[in-house]
Amino acid sequence: MHDETLSRRSLLGAISAASVTAVTVTACAPAKDTTFQSASVNATGTFMHGIASGDPTPEAIIIWTRITPDDMNQPFIAVKWELSETSDFKRLSASGTAKTSATQNWTVKVDATGLMPNTAYYYRFQINGQNSPIGQTKTLPKGSIDSVRFAAVSCSNWQHGFFNVYDYIARQDHFDALLHLGDYFYEYGAKSYLNTEAGKQGRLHEPRHEIVSLEDYRIRHAQYRTDPALQAVTAKMPLITIWDDHESSNDSYKTGAENHNDSEGDWEARKAHALRAYYEWMPIRDPKEGRLREEIFRAYDYGDLLTLVTIETRLLARTEPLIFENNVDEIEADPQKYKMEVLNDPKREMMGKAQIDFVTDALSQSKSKGMPWRLVANQVVMGRVLTTDMTPYIDQAAIDALAKDWPGVRDVVGLSKYNLPVYPDSWDGYPAARERFYQALKAKGVEDIFVITGDSHEYWVNNLTTDAGKPMGVEIGVTSVSSETLVKYMGDGTADYNLLITQSNPDVRYYNALYNGFLDLTFTHKKCDAKLIAVDTVLSKTYSAFETAAFTVKPDAKTLKFGTPKGLNLKQRALFSGLG
């Protein structure tokens, strides 16, 4: 989202709420789980930023912590580390000593090797007799396995509320890994993109200004790592992570960002600061020698069941996003020409050839091994989501009112009739790159990708299709951990807007912008059970969790298909089935 009073996404929601009278249905209130009290006790002292693990292989895993030394001027600190299959650490599976210093911002990252596949381990760190909290982690399986279960999250904004979603996930004992799809933190200063109620409870960014320097990014990472719910979830299970834009700057691309200007210095320097801090503070392997820090894409095989690939769509190859409001005259003069020559320009890139080759090779190998699932961890919505004509539904008084918050509203309303992408920062803004990716997959015999997506602060259940309408798989998007949803701007109209988006876009089967939450994904050889788990508030540490909808996905010939959903009202069910 942009640092504006109303973002483009929120504006589209607000001006569309009036257009859905014909499809309005009162949403059924989901049954809520037990009320919980979010974690409030975080680590203190030497290990005040907690512990984490991640980037697993069958024989190794990264374990991480950060030291807060009494003497910041000492040249280095030696930190002992231990892994054991039991919590008493009486028999060690691996151990050693790692050094850290101010050069690494006192972070400790150990690649613990020589481990057993599909094995749960406890781990801890020690300095001068002081022990860190004890963490739990798990290596990847080899050979035959029956199932794997993930929690998938995205968009955790300190200034928008408490991380109750993390807290709830940490209370579960059945997840094999936490998949973080990006926007792990936000780069804005304390006065930008703030939820006032969260601010009143002390949820203000440090440093108070927008982060630009290496020290700024380190401080922001450190602040987020003091959150007790984040500490709890990363101590409970391994983390597999990708970044989106806010880990560097909003709407970032290869050569810049929407939220970066000349007064903030050189973009390449800022990007380098962001990436250095990210690799210091996250439990992820640094790139191999000869590879760029931007090349975060990698692959994980879960036995004979599933291949997970994580992709990078921001800093490595992405072309600058289009801003349609800046091209009103060109679009209105010849909308079809604009779509063909500008929007569909084949030079517009998302992933780059090297990454496409890596991903297609990994997924084709998965296919050749007979593995039933090819899971893609992706930043921004891949399915088609185009605007519907809003002009019949919004009067001049409404436009005038909205123009006070965003002067570009008149242009957006006028352009809506051209069926342009709702989110030009998503894959819709790069249709030639998306088609190039699909065709590269098809050439390797892969037409059944299961994409999980973050970024949008909304739940999505989409079919994925080529330009010719051929199925390529499915997409399920996760809403945000705490970042504000459309409810802030639309209130009661949000449920109606959900229906409008679904009704207007054939590839969208279900859409929900009401809640914060996460995805609970269980894969077996026959199906995937996908539960959309939500929390009722992020503005209080007392919260309830509930299942807002659930879907099954099954292999179907060369591709994937959705089964009968659960938790949908009559209109949602009709739209899901293509009857609405």
Summarize the structure in words:
This protein is an alpha+beta fold and 580 residues long. The chain folds into two domains: 456 residues, Alkaline phosphatase D (PhoD) (Purple Acid Phosphatase, chain A, domain 2, 4-Layer Sandwich); 98 residues, Immunoglobulin-like, CATH 2.60.40.380. Helices cover 24% and strands 25% of the residues. Helix 2 runs parallel beside helix 5 and helix 4 packs parallel to helix 6. The longest helix is centred in the middle third of the chain and has 16 residues. It is globular. The two termini are 30 Å apart. The N terminus is likely disordered.
In brief:
With 580 residues, this protein is α+β, with helices and mostly antiparallel strands. It contains 15 helices and 25 strands. The chain has helices spanning 8-16, 164-170, 196-200, 214-225, 228-236, 267-281, 328-333, 335-343, 353-368, 396-403, 409-415, 431-443, 487-490, 494-504, 570-576, and strands at residues 32-37, 51-54, 61-66, 77-84, 92-100, 107-112, 120-127, 130-131, 135-138, 147-153, 177-180, 239-241, 252-253, 256-257, 298-302, 306-310, 373-378, 449-453, 459-465, 471-477, 508-512, 516-524, 528-535, 542-556, 559-562.
